[in-house]
Amino acid sequence: MSDEVRVQISSDEDLVAARAEARALADRLGFSRTDVTLIATAISEIARNIVVHVGEGEITMRPVYEELRHGLVVVARDEGLGIGDVSAALDSGYASRGGLGLGLPGARRLMDEFEVESARDKGTTITMTKWRVRDELERIRERRSRSASPPPSELNGR
Amino acid sequence: MAVAVLNQRDYLIASIQSDLSDTEVLQLRDDLAERVGTLRARGLIIDVAALDVIDSFVARALRSIAVTARLRGAETVVVGIRPDVAIALVQFDLNLEPIRAALDVDEALEVLDRMALKDGARDV
Prior knowledge:
Strand content of chain B: 15-25%
Radius of gyration of chain B: 13 Å
CATH superfamily of chain A: Histidine kinase-like ATPase, C-terminal domain
Strand order of the largest sheet of chain A: 1-2-3-5-4
Number of domains of chain A: 1
Radius of gyration of chain A: 17 Å
Distance between the termini of chain A: 15 Å
Oligomer: heterodimer
Strand order of the largest sheet of chain B: 1-2-3-4-5
CATH topology of chain B: Transcription Regulator spoIIAA
CATH architecture of chain A: 2-Layer Sandwich
Strand content of chain A: 25-35%
Order of helices and strands of chain A: EHHEEHHEEHH
CATH topology of chain A: Heat Shock Protein 90
CATH class of chain B: Alpha Beta
CATH architecture of chain B: 2-Layer Sandwich
Number of helices of chain A: 6
Largest interface: A-B, 25 and 22 residues
Largest sheet of chain B: 5 strands, mixed
């Protein structure tokens, strides 16, 4: 079973699904309630960007397991016209199509890592990650249960 | 729609029951603007406790509901913003100005009562 979650985005109703899936996965990864909400809010923003600016695209969410931290990586892809000026789009106040220009910069502030790749006519890919630091207790518990079952990092190959 | 609207005295109370799509949020805005007039409401309370995400779109819609309601003669109080949602709004750098917020419906009713006492004529 893969932990990866894909949500096709083509209407505003898909945002509801994207938010719910984001919550479920972040919750499963042990993020705090606040972080779960930050992640779901960031995903809502970039999903809306797809609906408003391109019409359709896809959001993929997957867990990353490291020894010292677990993460949730979100990749949003569309095949639209691309963002002309990425650094301007990441500036608060850059508004196109009647938006408030808060979407991308807002999502960036809610996540730990945020990267935009965009080329004219080649679409846009946004990759953003939220990390959760694993404390000593959690790691000790994992080591103790390791003999019984393989750790998630071996199950997921990353 | 997943919003229950009821009136209590001359106040209108809209309780959002579940996450809403953008279309439903806009429907709610139009619906409340209409009802404030037909019911001659002086206050509007929106309970958002069921919303586990308030992103820029929803924040803008709530502001727009409040401004519209004010132009129709009613003040708006938003109640039930969850702590994690409040933190997200701050981190996002979104604010809900000029909306007033209260913890729950009872507190919102008090706020509206006090406002009604204070100003007979209100500024727009």
